[in-house]
Amino acid sequence: MNVEFSPELEAFRREVAEFFATAPTPAIREAGRKTTSVFAPFDQCMAWHQILYEKGWAAPHWPKEYGGTGWSVEQRFIFAEEYRKADLPPLLPQSLGMVGPLLIDLGTEEQKAKYLPPILKGQDFWAQGYSEPGSGSDLASLSCRAEADGDDYIINGSKIWTTYAHHANRMFMLVRTSTEGKKQAGITFLLLDRMDYPGMEVRPIYGLDGFPEQCEVFFDNVRVPQSGRVGEENQGWSVAKHLLKHERGGGNAASPTLMRYLERARAAACETSSPFGGMLADDPVFQRDFGELEADVTSLSHLEKLAISGHEIARDPAFPSMNKTINSELVQRASVMMSKVSGVGGLARQLEALRVGSNVEPQGSEFDLITMPLYLNSRATTIYAGSNEVQRDLIARSLAAGA
Question: pTM of the predicted model, to two decimals?
Fold first, then answer.
């Protein structure tokens, strides 16, 4: 990728920057500043999604025939850069980043026509029903079962860690449809049109950061149509693995968010006194630690650019696992760095001040307000989407297979 952009690309940058400066509402901007997770505040995030859809910019990574922008690699990079600079809330990943690309690749024409437009418009939000109590990172051991009955399946069991399920109106999930043979061979991938089927219950779970981001979902003889199946019955394992490539960052860029974290940490360090005199930003130990982290985030950014450009590295089976492992550990390191800069200022629990639209002023700065919730939430990054221990095993298997 050229470092110097053409006049046409610089004009594109100005167009993006101007839109980001004028289109978001004050509440959307506040949601961006108060985002302490991968998942931004729901209502403002979906409102921003719909504004981007009206502009035609909701899904730059989708093929143009399905509503993507058709942008070049350079344009997508510029869009991501300006998005980061504007500190806007990231769009929620399950719909645009996971089930949407999956249906584009593997869905029937009927499923694409039914589900892709409302995903693109921000009318539907999907929850992901993969994890189960007792399964841990061994996804193939899932036991939530679905039995065929006429044109329907009847589902019994439960799911856990279903992020934002209490906001979702649709759900994609894995179910056990056979206990014969290998455990991977009896799994089916289903699309659910509702979250309020009779017998279906969603219970929010409050995390360490004080927010109900995760949920548990229970199924008691829940009847759903078989037309929601993606792929063949008992062949859902391959569908699930295909979706995981998107979830683990096969083509999505996480580094802009990390860069934004570092920018905010650097700015706060410039205004924070060092116990050894001067400002924290001038402390040589801080500069060393910050520089190492910044270099590693920059390395991740280059990897993601290669993936966006369609480089062959992104086609390596180990790439999504490598990307997920690096990204998740950098998020944790960045949250530690932010907590060090904030110090005791970040210790106060300020849930009401964090709510978008709150009239409660934060104690300390807005940077102090977000650091501890972000730190606590980021403890999960090395576990979800497949633990990093599992990812390292997958990387080793891929390397051994290619040796």
Answer: 0.90
Structure token pair of residue 402: 């290619």
Catalytic residues: 247
Distance of CA 355 to the CA centre of its chain: 21
Tokens 């109900």 locate to 212
Q: Which residue has the tokens 């650019």?
A: 305
- What count of Cα atoms within 13 Å lies in the side-chain half-sphere of residue 287? 7
Distances (CA, A) of 318 to 247, 265, 313: 14, 32, 9
DSSP H or E run through 164:
none
Phi, psi of 351 (to 5 degrees): -65, -40
For the record, the structure tokens of 183 come out as: 């455990």
Alpha-carbon span 163 to 174, nearest angstrom:
15
> Which tens digit of pLDDT belongs to each residue from 198-238?
999 999 999 988 889 999 999 999 999 999 999 999 999 99
DSSP 361-372: PPSS-HHHHHHH
